[in-house]
Write a structure and sequence with these properties.
The complex is a heterodimer of chains A (973) and B (500). By secondary structure, chain A is mainly beta. Chain A contains twelve helices and 48 strands. Chain A folds into three domains: 103 residues, Immunoglobulin-like (Sandwich), CATH 2.60.40; 133 residues, Ferric Hydroxamate Uptake Protein, Chain A, domain 1; 712 residues, TonB-dependent receptor, beta-barrel domain (Maltoporin, Chain A, Beta Barrel), CATH 2.40.170.20. With 500 residues, chain B is mainly alpha-helical. Among the domains of chain B are: 149 residues, Serine Threonine Protein Phosphatase 5, Tetratricopeptide repeat (Alpha Horseshoe), CATH 1.25.40; 101 residues, no CATH class. Chain B is 40% helix and 6% strand. A two-stranded antiparallel ribbon of chain B has the order 2-3. A two-stranded antiparallel sheet of chain B has the order 4-6. In chain B, strands 5-11 form a two-stranded antiparallel sheet. In chain B, helix 2 packs antiparallel against helix 5, helix 3 packs across helix 5 and helix 7 runs antiparallel to helix 8. At the A-B interface, strand 24, strand 25, strand 26, strand 30 and strand 31 of A face helix 1, strand 1, helix 2, helix 5 and helix 17 of B. Strand 30 of chain A pairs antiparallel with strand 1 of chain B.
Chain lengths: 973, 500
């Protein structure tokens, strides 16, 4: 079964056609027939309910039941034709009264067109789509270990870049679709989970996901209006459904850091001192690999247990999951416990369907002090970790603290609770007309606890113990109501109408309390009141709220399945927008033409199964860049205290907090998309998309004259930028026999971005330096990147270095004039996956990569400083490089970070185990991050490109990415 | 089907009777229309004006009066201080070298910092005055409150007058694309403001507040430099203003005004109060001066904040003190001894940390070259943000301003006892006759690193002569240029002469 939605759809069609068929058949009698039984399954041995079984050449037929079983009366030696939508017809000769298990092979092309795709406020068949929507279904999602939903999407969807910038288990990947559309706001797509927009991805356990649909172009995403500019990802999860089953999924994984920075070992350091006759070098007599001191072999185990029970009228589903990931850096364990419960019931003569559910999960992890990463590369390898009396060694000096001590003498624990509750009512008013109400409540609460004991080298000593607790909550309440109307006018015309209203309230609040000066370290963060050092700013709290109110409508029209048109319109109003721009319109329109169904295409129908041309245009927005209250004239009480001589105390002052801008509005993106879907030889399906996205009213914080404004900057909608690109998705069913199948898929995407405008009459900015190098020796106030018209975001701007001369100085071209020396955005991103099955064995391989993007190896820039030795450690490559020059920013440190990663390789075996009361057992082994092909010299070329401050920086972001091997077990009961 | 109809109506209500209210609800902030009505609320808003004296920091630059870069601008361009380039450290696009060589351009960050400091304060005060005028206070009460605010604003304008001369005068909450006024206009504005408010200001001493004493001191400064500012000497007016500054005395101990708890000093006329526990930021001058390893000399357990080895005494300052001069103790000189080991601290290259007055090569100085100012008290356990109040005006200045005016007016006999008060406290003799040249040096010795020196250099004329690592300075450089950054953002501004 491809997925639950699809099967339901198919099942209904099957039932309808078969009921009609059986009425006809039941009037005809047959003699000498024997009852013959069998079970219909797919290649994964999942039973297929609703398959048609017909005796060949007759009208005698039945359909399979919910477990895929059938029984038909037919003569021995006759032939049965078994058919099922999405599968190839199969003929079976009747040579026994029990035909056993009959396996159907998927019909690759039909299946891909029959997929039901989430389009926002409803679903459509892929064949009826007019916009650019790409789907990843559960089968692709669930072969091996799934550590996160984001990772699962890596390389799977052309144009969706998923960057996992760190190996830290507590930090997720960032998503970006078709390049960024914003300078200062988030570039992440809107996530819609089971119809609820704006849900945190992590609220849903990856194993609960049935399918993910990515709305790429504006004609598809415009139904989400002011939040659709970066695309929309629609996640469908497992909710209660018909049938009865139980399932366990679990794995154990072992991970180790996949790569280290090659700094000198103690022996290499000593050899260097000897060879260079360095007299003042201090050898502390140790032999320490500081990186290894902080690492460990990480054991991860994960368990998911699910059961589901459902009938025509009601049903429920429950699931619990647990994850424990130790992390390859010591003391960075992540634990996650989650559960979900959902239920449905029909009423009012099956005209009303009620659904309700709750997802909850609890995370617990130990955040660490990121300063260990710099120290572990700074410290001389001759320094032992501990003194002979087993206290930590301490060598004085800035950034020279013992990283093992920093890491050990610290107590930190964060917890996060997420809750998503929803209720949905669907009422069929008249045939085809449905009213839907969707209510949801999302609650996300994070608590951070930190204590730096009085003996801790980092702050603890100076503060005589430092304790802190932080709480941050946000809640999102949403009501969405809409009407849909489906009507097949006659054979030729089909329409679908949608109109609705949505109200969203997002409230966030929190506080922080801290205290210093503890008499004992025993309380940790549990008794802040015991601290005796009171300071302003020790306690603060905040609260804010945003509202989004929307009206939306959509019309689909389908003529003969050949010509399709869609139009959408959304009106969004946000409390964040300035008084002069409270409401915005977001329209779209798109057309599709199935050329292959035209009569004149008869000649090619033997090899061209499908050819569909799509074109669409839409306007979407991004409102993430406007914080709450930015358009208002406000007074705040903040950190600005003043001394009151009369009382000899410090008092809170109140004052204006910002330059208000009543014109603030969303960023607008207009997108044109042209797509072509094709299927060839029943083997190969593919899609080509070409698009252009023009974003204007870009938000940016403009600097304003200090003589004119009370505050130096103001947020304003001014600039514009453009993204253009091409995407290719290919999917091939190369071999498809009963025992052996081989399929493969490929995604390729190219996006080009350029900033077109940054200034207008009111607000001007010159080219803006960004990517601050402040913090690198001798680089204070210097920048590595430039935000400028005519260039993409993340353009490295500096002198071109052509090499190192014989004296070890950098050779800079053009007298060191700064120029464009590359960009953080990939020229090409791609993914490749292939899978084999042979009898009960299967193998799945997934790779992804990016080409042409640059990364600033700031870590190398810091470590290749000739002033470091002998006090601070350097890399092996520094000694080979012969660099004697002072730290200089140039293209020398801006490296090509193209890479190809073997993300995962899974080998599995599935066993039918009905004899022992189980329906299926699957064993598998998965290797993750097995290799990375790259010329990048740092630890990992996959570096976060989020934000404007330091996109594409590898700057001690050294939480090592693990290489993991796991063993997994899935059991179905 | 009754239920069905009800449900339909319910759905339709939800669809079309929908809420469309998009007002923002405020929780942790207040609208400027809802706060600042009562006298006590106004007091908290006035407090923000005083808080603005501490300056601010943003992604464009630090604008702190205590060091980066407002104080740095007047110090490093004067003859008492320098920030040598130490390898790659403190090169910072040559901004300190340009200050040292008197070759700054309108793009220099120090030049921008002081401008933004002053206008940051002025514009906040303009908004605050606006709030005061909208309050429930009576007109008379408003006048009193506004007098103090206008006083602090006049102080910012005085700084602009001194540093940039021809600056825009803005007194309204929202003013766009303002244009320059002449230096004479700015001078007149400052003087008129002070004269206008003087009787409304508190007569009594109130620590940290803009009192009559502060106003008269500022007026005395204005008149002392009147010849520079508008070409018209007003020495007697300066003396008269000084005489109005009552109730302050010279502390017996020179360093009393520079203790961590210096608010008890009876010498301080005006200061910017700091207390790191009250959340004040910007007060970390000492850390910018001391060597990275200096902490070992202050704490046996390294319990002292990080230091970054920057600003130093320009060669000549330290040796201008006689050995018995107590003020000479306000410097770190020679070997620095580790409290933990009792021996000399070693720098990273293994050589001893021993500060020298000589700086052999200004553009490539050694880490230990340059004597470090340590006027304010240093304590073990200090954090990056220090707790001492930053002295803006103290009574010694009144004494020496008067002395200078007497010399200028041809009565050095009246000046000598005044100078002697200062010298006696410093435990050094006073020459029989004091002339301008002597007084010039005495001003440097007394007020080193208090931000006076550039103004004194210009008034005394030394500014234009060559000195250590500086050629002769052209006349136009007695003013700094309007920052390029501001010129770019406001096309109505004109550049000071000589900088185009």
């Amino acid at each position: 079964m491809k997925n639950k939605n699809q099967s339901k759809y198919i099942f209904i069609i099957q039932v309808v056609t078969m009921v009609i068929g059986l009425v006809v058949l039941s009037v005809v009698g047959f003699a000498q027939n024997k009852p013959v039984k069998g079970t219909i399954v797919d290649k994964d041995n999942i039973s297929l309910p609703g398959a048609t079984i017909i005796q060949k050449g007759t009208t005698n037929g039945v359909i399979s039941d919910a477990e895929g079983n059938f029984e038909i009366a037919c003569p021995m030696g006759s032939t049965l034709v078994i058919s099922y939508i999405g599968f190839k017809d199969q003929e079976v000769e009747v040579n026994s009264t029990d035909l056993g298990t009959i396996k159907l092979m998927e019909d690759f092309v039909t299946l891909s067109e029959a997929v039901v795709v989430g389009v926002g406020y409803g679903t459509m068949r892929k064949s009826d789509l007019t916009g650019a929507i790409e789907s990843v279904d559960s089968e692709e999602l669930k072969k091996g270990v799934i550590s996160s939903t984001e990772q699962l999407l890596q390389g799977k969807v052309a144009g969706l870049t998923v960057i996992q910038g760190t190996g830290d288990p507590a930090i997720g990947a960032s998503l970006r679709l078709r390049g960024g559309t914003s300078l200062s706001a988030s570039n992440g797509p809107l996530i819609v989970v089971d119809g609820i927009p704006g849900v945190d991805f992590n609220t849903v356990h990856p194993s609960e996901i049935v399918s993910i649909d990515v709305l790429k172009d504006a004609s598809a995403s415009a139904i989400y209006g002011s939040r659709g500019a970066n695309g929309v990802i629609i996640v469908t999860t497992n909710r209660a459904s018909k049938g009865k089953n139980m399932q366990y999924q679990g794995y154990v994984a072992v991970g180790r850091a996949s790569k280290h920075v090659d700094v000198l070992s103690a022996n290499q350091w000593r050899a260097w001192v000897r060879e260079n006759e360095v007299t003042e070098a201090i050898d502390y007599g140790g032999n320490t690999d500081w990186q290894k001191e902080l690492e460990q072999t990480a054991i991860t185990h994960s368990h998911v247990f699910t059961f589901n029970s459902g009938t025509e009228s009601s049903g429920y589903r429950a699931s619990v999951n647990y994850l424990n990931n130790q992390g390859v850096i010591k003391n960075t364990k992540l634990e996650r416990l989650g559960a979900s419960l959902s239920a449905y019931q029909f009423g009012l003569n099956d005209k009303l369907k009620l659904e309700a559910g709750i997802n909850a999960n609890f995370d617990k992890w130990n955040p660490f002090d990121g300063r260990i990463f710099e120290r572990m590369l700074n410290l001389s390898p001759t320094i032992p970790v501990y003194n002979p009396d087993s206290s930590f060694t301490r060598i004085g000096g800035t950034k020279y603290d013992n990283p093992v001590e920093i890491h050990t003498n610290r107590f930190a624990q964060n917890t996060r609770h997420r809750l998503l509750g929803y209720g949905k009512a669907e009422l069929e008013i008249i045939e085809g007309l449905k009213a839907v109400a969707n209510l949801s409540y999302e609650y996300n609460s994070m608590q951070a606890r930190l204590y730096k004991p009085s003996y801790a080298v980092m702050e603890g000593q100076a503060d005589k113990g430092f304790g802190q607790r932080t709480l941050g909550d946000y809640t999102t309440m949403q009501i969405e109501t809409y009407l849909t109307y489906d009507k097949q006018l006659n054979d030729n015309h089909k329409i679908n109408l949608l109109g609705g209203y949505s109200y969203l309230d997002n409230t966030y609040e929190g506080f922080r309390a801290m205290r210093r000066g503890f008499d004992t370290d025993l309380f940790l963060y549990n008794n802040l009141g015991a601290g005796q050092d009171y300071r302003a700013g020790d306690v603060y709290s905040y609260k804010g709220q945003a509202k989004l109110i929307s009206f939306f409508a959509r019309a689909n029209y389908n003529f003969k399945g050949r010509y399709m048109a869609t139009a959408t319109l959304r009106r969004d109003g946000s409390s964040r927008f300035g008084a002069n721009n409270k409401w915005g319109w977001f329209p779209s329109a798109s057309l599709a033409w199935r050329i292959s169904d035209e009569p004149f295409m008869q000649a090619t129908s033997n090899w061209l199964d499908n050819l569909k041309l799509r074109a669409g245009y839409g306007v979407t927005g991004n409102q993430d860049g406007i914080g709450e209250y930015k358009s208002l004239s406000l007074l705040g009480a903040g950190s600005d205290t003043y001394y009151d001589a009369a009382t000899q105390t410090w008092k809170q002052s109140y004052g204006p907090i910002q330059n208000p801008n009543p014109n603030l509005k969303w960023e607008t993106t207009a997108q044109v998309n042209i797509g072509l879907d094709f299927s060839l030889f029943s083997r190969l399906t593919g899609t080509i998309e070409v698009y252009q996205k023009d974003t204007y009213d870009l938000l940016y914080t403009y600097r304003v004259s200090s003589a004119d404004y009370a505050f130096p900057t103001i947020l304003a909608n001014v600039g514009s930028l453009k993204n253009q690109g091409v995407e290719l998705t290919l999917s091939g069913n190369i071999v498809s026999t009963k025992d052996f199948t081989w399929d493969a898929n490929l995604t390729l995407a190219k996006n080009m971005q350029v900033i077109e405008k940054l200034s207008d009459e009111t607000f001007q900015t010159e080219d803006v330096p960004s990517g601050s190098l402040h913090g690198i020796d001798g680089m204070s106030g210097q920048f590595s990147q430039l935000i400028a018209e005519g260039y993409p975001v993340g353009t490295f701007w500096g002198p071109l270095c052509t090499g190192i001369d014989s004296t070890g100085k950098f050779i800079l071209a053009d007298e060191g004039v700064s120029q464009d020396i590359g960009n953080v955005q990939p020229k090409l991103s791609y993914g490749f996956g292939t899978g084999f099955t042979w009898k009960n064995f299967d193998m799945e391989l997934a790779m992804y990569g990016m080409y042409g993007q640059k990364v600033l190896n700031a870590t190398a820039m810091i470590l290749n400083n000739p002033k470091r030795l002998p006090t601070l450690n350097v890399t092996d490559s520094f000694l080979e490089s012969g660099i004697t020059d002072k730290v200089t920013y140039s293209s020398y440190w801006v490296e090509d970070a193209s890479f190809l990663r073997l993300q995962s390789l899974t080998l599995g075996y599935t066993l039918q185990a009905t004899e022992i009361g189980l329906s299926k057992i699957r064993f598998y082994v998965t290797g993750e991050n097995l290799f990375v092909l790259t010329n990048y010299s740092g630890t990992d070329p996959e570096v976060s490109i989020e934000g404007l401050d330091n996109p594409g920086f590898d700057w001690f972001n050294a939480y090592p990415r693990p290489r993991t091997f796991s063993f997994g077990l899935n059991v179905s009961f | 089907m009754k239920i069905n109809k009800i449900t339909i109506i319910l759905f339709l209500t939800m669809l079309f009777g929908a809420c469309t209210d998009l007002e923002e609800t405020l929780y942790d902030k207040v609208s400027s229309a809802d706060y600042g009505k009562t006298a006590s609320e106004i007091e908290t808003i006035v407090g923000r004006a005083y808080a603005s004296l501490r300056g601010y920091s943003d992604e464009i630059c630090n604008a702190f009066p205590t060091g980066e870069f407002v104080l740095f601008l007047s110090e490093t361009t004067s003859d008492e201080a320098c920030i040598p380039t130490r390898g790659a450290d403190w090169y910072d696009e040559g901004r300190y070298q340009d200050a040292q060589f008197h070759t700054w351009t309108p793009s220099n960050l120090l030049v921008l910092s002081a401008w933004r400091y002053c206008y940051g304060g002025i514009n906040k005060i303009n908004l605050i005055i606006d709030q005061v005028e909208k309050s429930e206070l009576s007109e008379e009460e408003q006048m009193v409150v506004k007098a103090e605010l206008r006083g602090v604003r006049a102080y910012f304008y005085y700084m602009l007058l001194d540093l940039y001369g021809n600056v825009p005068i803005t007194t309204k909450a929202s003013d766009e694309n303002v244009t320059n006024s002449t230096r004479a206009d700015v001078y007149a504005f400052v003087e008129n403001e002070l004269l206008d408010i003087i009787d409304l200001l508190p007569e009594e001493k109130i620590y940290g507040r803009f009192t009559q004493g502060v106003a008269y001191t500022l007026m005395a400064r204005l008149y002392l430099n009147s010849e520079v500012f508008i070409g018209e000497p007003r020495w007697q007016d300066c003396i008269n203003a000084c005489d109005k500054v009552q109730g302050y005395t010279l502390e017996n101990n020179f360093f009393t005004s520079f203790l961590t708890d210096n608010e008890g000093s009876n010498e301080i006329i005006w200061s910017i109060p700091y207390d790191s526990k009250a959340g004040t930021v910007g007060n970390f001058f000492a850390s910018l001066a001391f060597h990275y390893k200096q902490k070992q000399a202050f704490s046996a357990t390294n319990n002292y904040t990080d230091c970054v080895n920057g600003i130093s005494a320009q060669p000549g300052l330290y040796s201008s003190y006689e050995d018995e001069d107590v003020r000479k103790q306000g410097y770190l000189v020679g070997d620095q001894i580790s409290l933990a080991t009792g021996s000399v601290i070693l720098m990273d290259d293994g050589s001893p940390l021993s500060y020298t007055e000589e700086i052999e090569d200004y553009t490539d100085a050694k880490q230990n070259e340059g004597i470090r100012p340590k006027k304010y008290e240093v304590k073990e356990g200090e954090t990056w943000e220090r707790d001492h109040d930053f002295v803006l005006m103290r009574y010694a200045e009144i004494i020496l301003m008067k002395a200078e005016c007497y010399i200028r007016l041809g009565s050095p006999g009246l000046a000598r006892p005044l100078v002697a008060q200062i010298r006696d406290r410093a435990n050094v003799d006073t020459p029989a006759e004091v002339d301008l040249e002597f007084l010039d040096d005495e001003l440097m010795r007394e007020f080193a690193f208090e931000g006076h020196r550039r103004t004194d250099n210009i008034r005394m004329g030394d500014w234009f002569e060559p000195w250590w690592n500086k050629e002769a300075t052209p006349e136009y450089r007695s003013l700094f240029p309007i920052p390029q950054y501001e010129m770019d953002l406001n096309s109505n501004l004109t550049q000071n002469p000589g900088y185009n």
